[in-house]
């Protein structure tokens, strides 16, 4: 049995969990305060939110800087940690995958369960992330080797295992005729002002139609494969799906904790992908139409060196390796 903790913010963590779970031969139980993703076939334990009236003005939520969110007196936090602990005792998992929570990783390890952490881009050298990485057996990096958007302290760099991108959409090695024009692919975890809306509104005022991508996974896949250029943020899952469909892109970094998207954007620029990458906050008078014209000139086949389509399987192999080691140690 594998436990898989899924962060509730946005949708990317759930999409990644679904893709990896499908590649595992061992039963997987999801644990999250978010709903199970469509297509999840295993058990899914819905956890209480870790917020509530008593956390409006939280007391010592970072435990002196060692953790990220453990407000004193948090009844939701108490309920969710108790539920996770009870599942650990009942299910006795061979490993727990954490995407992402330092607190859940620490809880698992305190129960004697080996932990695999899903890495995220950004500067993660704060004490809380350092603790989470210190206690992890492996850090799965859902990006290709050589991209290096994650900064950690030196002892933990050896734990980083790049597996390639992980997407809901099947990867293709070819590009087809594209008739869809400029498309917009949004995420669901944005903070503050949305730079994608600023770019799309400016393009529409310039007379360039922008079609927003919505719908099922199949519809999203079709829209991406048909678009001549897609505008999106620099979230891991958005970039993975764009790469899977070999679509030229305009990628705009959003403000996120630990400069997550800006670190990924800079890494994409260094790596070289068929996209115009806006890593820093754009100026109010940025010429978005010129960016689109630049993006149109890229050949989407350039995404081939960025994604191989087997990232989920490679991640599952690492998880199985850790679980097998845990099983052997228990004998």
Report on the architecture of this protein.
The chain is an alpha/beta fold. The protein folds into 2 domains: 2-164 and 310-330, 3-Layer(aba) Sandwich (Rossmann fold), CATH 3.40.50.2000; 182-305, Glycogen Phosphorylase B (Rossmann fold, 3-Layer(aba) Sandwich). It contains 11 helices and 14 strands. It has helices spanning 12-21, 75-91, 102-110, 127-134, 154-157, 195-205, 217-226, 236-244, 260-271, 288-296, 311-330, and strands at residues 2-6, 28-32, 44-46, 95-99, 115-118, 122-123, 138-141, 150-151, 160-162, 182-185, 210-212, 229-233, 249-252, 275-278. The strands form 3 sheets. The protein has a 7-stranded parallel β-sheet, sandwiched between helices. Strands 11-10-12-13-14 form a 5-stranded parallel β-sheet, with helices on both faces. A two-stranded parallel sheet has the order 6-8. It is globular, with a radius of gyration of 20 Å. The model has no long low-confidence stretch (mean pLDDT 94).
Shape: globular
CATH class of the largest domain: Alpha Beta
Radius of gyration: 20 Å
Q: How would you spell out the order of helices and strands?
A: EHEEHEHEEHEEHEEHEHEHEHEHH
Summarize the biggest pleated sheet: 7 strands, parallel
The assigned structural class equals: alpha/beta
Strand order of the largest sheet: 3-2-1-4-5-7-9
Number of helices: 11
| Through-space gap between termini | 16 Å
> Spans of 5+ residues with little confidence (pLDDT < 50)?
none
Mean pLDDT: 94
Under CATH, the topology of the largest domain can be stated as: Rossmann fold
| Count of separate structural domains | 2
The CATH fourth-level homologous superfamily of the largest domain? Glycogen Phosphorylase B
Sheet-strand content, in percent, reads 15-25%
CATH architecture of the largest domain: 3-Layer(aba) Sandwich
Q: Considering DSSP H and I runs of 4 or more, what fraction of the residues is helical?
A: 25-40%
Number of strands: 14
Protein name: Glycosyl transferase family 28 C-terminal domain-containing protein
GO molecular function: hexosyltransferase activity
Pfam family, one: Glyco_tran_28_C
InterPro entries: Glyco_trans_28_C
